[in-house]
Amino acid sequence: MFVFGQFYSRMMAKRLINKQFISADVETQVVNKLRDACGCDYTGKLMRMQRDINSSQGMMDKFFEKFPLKQFRAKCDVFINILTSGVWPIPTFDIPMKLPVILQPVIDNFNTFYHSEYSGRRLTWIFQLGSVDVRLSFVKRPVMATMNAQQLAICLAFSDTDTVSLSEMKEVTGMADEYLETNVDCLVSAGILRRQESASILSLNMEYAPKKPRIKILAPVTKEQPQQEKEETEKSTGDMRLVFLQATVCRVMKAHLNMNHATLVKAVKEQTQTRFIPNEVMIKKTIDVLLEKEYIRRSLTAQDVYEYIV
Q1: Taking a C-beta distance cutoff of 8 angstroms, is the pair 204, 162 a contact?
Q2: What is the pLDDT of residues 124-149, one digit of tens each?
Q3: How far apart are CA 171 and CA 166, in angstroms?
Q4: Which of 161, 251, 260, 290 is the most buried (most CB within 10 A)?
């Protein structure tokens, strides 16, 4: 259940952030079923994620009351998700880039608003998780394209010109080579941009004619990313299991005050079997950690017996 919970929370986070869920009620029903089956501790972060999404709407309403941004909102709309640090299984770093000038007033005003509402809190922007809807006006038939902030910055570099070199693009966007190349490749694959004979020169594809009026530009994914996410999830799962085992051993010892090793191992397995079945090596390592932390101690009068330290 620990492994499932970690992978489910990652998938749920992507659905909530990208607004790709069928309905909020369906998400709530699934979380409630998980809570009934596994307990409140198991679904605590999932429920907090849902509350963050719901409260973000109220936060945006208050923000626009103080900062109407009529001139900006006449051209486009904006929505900002305010996510609680430590709850969401998302990267806590942002890809270095120069934010498009058109977005800067919104960011500055929201920073002012948020710190006036919550003094002492730190606000960290993670732009690579966001998305924008861009109207492509250079094509014969207007097309709405959904892309990330990095791809938007690349497209805006063509506002006053039809061709841009990669070196100029790097200076305009402020992105590192690896991020610039992968996002450019996504736009080239989608057909919006094309490379000239010299691969370092990019131009708008004036012949671009998608069949649908709305398209989505895929986010860049490196070959290592799926494996890296899997490794991070497995590591996080292992850490959670160790903490859960420590809590279980302490709970058992507190109830009995003293137990021999074999009885303690059996009792721990019985209490953890609904989540996962630990092997004796894991339990032994957990006991050693609690001995070092002085939650329990070895008995001075009986062999292979542990005592709970009150």
Answers
A1: yes
A2: 888 888 888 888 888 888 889 999 88
A3: 9
A4: 290
